[in-house]
User: What shape does this take?
Amino acid sequence: MKGGEHKYLNVMPAPKALKREYAKLKEMTASRNCWKPIPALIRDMNRNLDGWANYFRYGHPRRSFRKVNRFARRRLGVHLRRRSQRPFRPPKGMTFYRHFANLGLTYL
Assistant: This one.
């Protein structure tokens, strides 16, 4: 236990909980869901991410939240590139991160 004589509760999401969240996000961005409009997909992802974050907000979830953020953005990028015969690119002068933020994707 770090912190010398001070005791504290070190609570964070378990690796099993992260794997379940990754599986849920992967299911939402699977190739069989390419028919779903982007705003509806992002709305569903936000609802899932917000619920997961509210459940695990107690404690010190920063590292886990970063991992989930990276995974969600990577999966959404893969999904958008897969949707069309032409490769998806964000608008000129804008990063994927900023474009996803403009589309309304939740950042944990």
Observations:
- Helices lie at 15-28, 38-56, 62-82, 96-103.
- The mean pLDDT is 91.
- The longest helix spans residues 62-82.
